[in-house]
Amino acid sequence: MLKQLMLSKKIEQRKAALAELEEQEKGLETRAEQVEAALAEAQTDEEIAAVEDEVSKIEAEKEKLKQKKAGLEAEIAELEGELEQLNSKAPKNNEGGKRDMSNKLEVRELINEYVRTKQIRQMEGFKVVDGGVLVPEEILAPYRKPEDVVDLTKLVRVTKVNRGSGKVPIIKKSGSKMVSVAELEKNPELAKPTITDVAFDIETYRGYIPVSQEVIDDADFDVTGLIAEEISDQELNTKNNAIVEVLKTATPKAVTGLDELKAVFNKDIKRVYNVKAVISASLYNVLDTMKDNNGRYLLQDDITLESGKRLFGKEVIVLDDDVIGEVDGDLVGFIGDLEAFCMLFDRKSVSVKWVDNDIYGQLLASYVRFDVQKIDEDAGYYVTFTPAGE
User: Fold this and answer.
1) I need a labelling partner for 321 at 20 to 30 A (CA). Which of 6, 72, 144, 382 fits?
2) C-alpha–C-alpha distance, residues 280 and 321, integer Å
3) Residue 337: CB atoms within 10 Å
4) Among 380, 289, 286, 280, which residue's Cα sits nearest to residue 327?
5) Single pTM value for the model
6) Domain count, the chain
7) Which of helix, strand or coil describes residue 367?
């Protein structure tokens, strides 16, 4: 049964990784559309070259994703086949329970025999340690404390990079229009799209997780799976924190009451941006108790969204007060287009390596390399909210 559980866990992890790759594919499609629009507006050789370079990067990333997906799909098929084979051989009804009970009784008898005679007789499940016998003790699977996990990397633009530092050209539309010209008059020069270089400098985040040899030897649960899960959680927390720190650098805006807050959504941010609200839990609590003039609550349920809530028709993502803010009770948040506002430059995903240590156990070292930079100042505001009348 344990083998089946381990296989099921591995299948679950592979499918989660596959779903993440599919999300990355959608992001590449969005980038491809943006590059296509930029190409249509490019006027000079330099602008066209910048767009061509971006196209090459997108195509290369698409090919890598395709290969990774094929590998994961093959792994999933192999694991599912192995699981199906094990299930077909699994004991029916309570045969396994009877066999387990019989095995435990035999181990107990052997321990009693050793106590009486000091003679050791080997059998499966009966361990010999330093000339004596080991009385088996069941180690239960650990309790996992529930966590409210928000993955901000799904909301920002993620770009794979192959160097520790560099620049990425960001093309901003001019927003201008053509002018009327009389017949045979000289063509006026059109406004050019603005191209700015955003510099990135990859940071390395690393640490280790100690794993005792006792746990490795005795645990009846998937230790490797738990370690991998913990590493994944730490990677997500590290990236989320870096993204939030960049969101906090948005143009500050103090708003009082619902009318001023609604103005941020309706007119302060241009309509071209896909606006979302990343707010503190305290601000969420305040807004969740407010109603409009028709008596309807401001926050509306929407099961199509991962967060499950909308504010003024826009998605709401809730973070702890001390994450998006500074202290408990902060009524703050980022309102804007996260994907347009900042970019995560991903140099290397989580890697792990066993390292030697002088404890009775092993250390699993892990590291991740990335950088987060602001790319469009106009795409959002860092809002501080004050209820009307205070």
Assistant:
1) 144
2) 5
3) 22
4) 280
5) 0.58
6) 2
7) strand
